[in-house]
Amino acid sequence: MSQPSVLHDTFNERQLLIYLPDGYADSDQRYPVVYLQDSGDLIEPNDSDTLLKVRELTAKGELPGMIFVGVASFDRNDEYTPFVSPNVFEPGKMFGGNASVYARFWRTS
To answer: How is the beta sheet containing 33-36 ordered, strand by strand?
Structure first.
């Protein structure tokens, strides 16, 4: 199976990475769309074999054809990290301890 092709485009100044399923250009069929964060690294053919696997499953009829749209962020920390007032999670007041509303952590050093 050949390498899948992806389109690079912009919308409202956002960089997009778009995968159209095989036969899309010759079809009037409607396809579901999967939107991906982080520029669509998951579907970048140079970084991942995800689209090859999707195409194999689609060819076998085990998965419907679908469009993938990777959307780049302007500022990942600002857009994906919820900022909550420290008063909301005072130890012992709300849950009897500390809580996390976002389970992904990273170092910024």
So the answer is: 6-11, 14-19, 67-71, 33-36
**Which helix (DSSP H) or strand (DSSP E) does residue 67 occupy?**
strand 67-71
CA 61/CA 106 separation, integer angstroms: 39
Count CB atoms within 10 A of the CB of residue 17: 22
Question: Which tens digit of pLDDT belongs to each residue from 36-65?
Answer: 887 777 777 777 888 889 889 999 999 999
* pTM of the complete model beyond 0.70: no
Burial (0-12, 13-18, 19+ Cβ within 10 Å), 63: middle
Farthest CA pair distance, the chain: 61
